[in-house]
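User: Here's a structure from my thesis project, written as structure tokens. My advisor, Dr. K., wants to see whether a designed sequence matches the one we expressed. Can you design one independently, without my sequence as a hint?
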């Protein structure tokens, strides 16, 4: 399916996105159509334009304006529309944007020739962000006919073998550590926890389905079979190897930083296994009386999910882009990541913006208490303060000014 996308900045003549795309969907089986390609192009644009920059979506047809402006309530509640999943995902992105978004109908200029080979191949992830998507269809808008048709057309998806195996590994590892067996539903729900940021949620979801091109995937690709092996360790490459065993700089440093920051407040850092990493949204820490320690659980979830995602990004930079980062650079990347997670948590306390999905100030303060830099000098409620940072410094930090 092909799409042309052009998005311009409102405040300046800058063109934010201007591409011809060859689209496929990671998690959807959509019939190629003109409307689906327009929606796919728009979703790609929204995933790549910063939320805080005003933007004008330029489209060669009135369709997008009709779906997202004039007839939005009809489209966002019509689950029988074949494009419904992608419309839902786009609405979540539009709701996440803090700057103005305008739709404009115009012929494209300056784009590549539609028949040229300049098309960018993109696999789109259409999972909507739970923080910004509506959970279902309004009863007041749907009719009995609509709901009956939805139930009749609901299909049971067959599960992949690797997914079933990963769900089982998660279940057993979680039980080993926290003494309970989570159901499949609990595991899937934990992967969509709003304690984890959107891109990391998508990453963990793909890990559970093993959709990444790692290891045995390359066994049947002529001339590229060597990619089935880890270049640094000369053993078969797997996500588990990358996450926990690889000798290339990255995972060891990152997990030791996790343990270090954890130990600032809690004595025992759990021994990580691949199943526990996949189940990082399911920790159960309890007091001696059996009460759950929610802040400790959140901190574990945030720490492990963000760290494994960073390990994966660093591995890709090394393998695909040939970047060899020093230990100090890896530590700095981890600090920057953990401080972004802290800042995200501060933002999530904004009730005006997130409504009932906002996190309480109390849980955010409690989650990070004990691990902040100069914590004694911070106000009691630092959720609105700028420049709050975690309080351990890289051990091999480069010396110098700045
Ligand atoms: Zn390795």
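Assistant: Designed independently from the structure alone:
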């Amino acid at each position: 399916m092909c799409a042309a996308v052009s998005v311009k900045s409102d405040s300046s003549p800058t063109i934010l996105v201007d591409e011809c795309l060859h689209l496929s969907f990671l998690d959807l089986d959509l019939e190629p159509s003109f409307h689906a390609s327009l929606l796919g192009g728009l979703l790609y644009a929204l995933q790549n334009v910063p939320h805080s920059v005003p933007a004008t979506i330029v489209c060669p047809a009135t369709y997008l304006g009709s779906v997202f402006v004039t007839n939005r309530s009809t489209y966002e509640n019509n689950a029988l529309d074949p494009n419904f999943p992608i419309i839902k995902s786009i609405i979540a992105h539009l709701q996440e944007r803090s700057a103005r978004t305008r739709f404009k109908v115009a012929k494209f200029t300056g784009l590549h020739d539609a028949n040229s080979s300049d098309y960018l191949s993109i696999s789109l992830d259409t999972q909507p962000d739970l923080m910004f998507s509506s959970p279902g269809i309004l009863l007041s808008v749907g009719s009995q006919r609509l709901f009956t048709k939805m139930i009749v057309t609901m299909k049971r998806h067959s599960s992949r073998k690797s997914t079933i195996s990963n769900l089982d590994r998660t279940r057993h590892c979680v039980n080993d550590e926290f003494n309970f067996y989570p159901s499949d539903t609990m595991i899937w729900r934990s992967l969509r926890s709003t304690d984890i940021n959107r891109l990391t949620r998508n990453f963990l979801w793909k890990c559970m389905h093993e959709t990444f091109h790692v290891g045995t995937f390359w066994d049947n690709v002529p001339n590229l079979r060597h990619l089935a092996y880890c270049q640094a360790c000369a053993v078969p490459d797997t996500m588990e190897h990358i996450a926990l065993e690889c000798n290339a700089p990255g995972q060891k440093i990152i997990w030791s930083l996790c343990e270090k920051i954890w130990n600032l407040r809690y004595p025992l850092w759990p021994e990580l296994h691949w199943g526990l990493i996949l189940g990082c949204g399911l920790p159960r820490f309890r007091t001696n009386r059996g009460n759950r320690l929610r802040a400790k659980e959140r901190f574990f979830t945030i720490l492990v999910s963000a760290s494994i995602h960073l390990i994966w990004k660093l591995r890709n930079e090394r393998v695909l882009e040939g970047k060899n980062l020093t230990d100090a650079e890896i530590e700095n990347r981890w600090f920057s990541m953990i401080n972004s997670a802290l800042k995200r948590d501060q933002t999530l306390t904004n009730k005006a913006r997130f409504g009932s999905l906002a996190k309480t100030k109390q849980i955010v303060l409690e989650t990070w208490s004990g691990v902040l830099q100069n914590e004694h000098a911070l106000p009691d409620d630092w959720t609105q303060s700028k420049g709050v940072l975690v309080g351990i410094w890289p051990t091999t930090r480069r010396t110098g000014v700045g």
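When you compare it with your expressed construct, this may help: Residues 161-377 form one domain.
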